[in-house]
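One-letter codes give the sequence; the fold follows as tokens. An example follows:
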Amino acid sequence: QVQLVESGGGSVQGGGSLRLSCVASGYTTNTYCMGWFRQAPGKEREGVVFISSHGAAIYSDSVKGRFTVSQDNAKNTLTLLMNSLKPEDTAMYYCAYRGFCFTIPQSSNEYPYWGQGTQVTVSS
């Protein structure tokens, strides 16, 4: 089992920044993939960014150039720096984890472990 705990959400005005963190614990593996997903009310969950344990990252077009993902393998921590936030970024943000991962999955169905989510609200 892997436990994920997100933090760092909050409310910010459009154009502002927030930093989300996700700490993994439990049966983590050296080779893994992690992702940030988000879900707004009435909408489907969508992938925001995905990263492998080797540092390869895939960003969704909607956040490319504004969001930056980073990882600290020693601390089992994934960080998402969100700049130039827009009202449409408002959502619950979830961290997800998949161990023994060699090809970065982009579907939520391929991540067995999830955090509880952290709310991001961007006002116009």
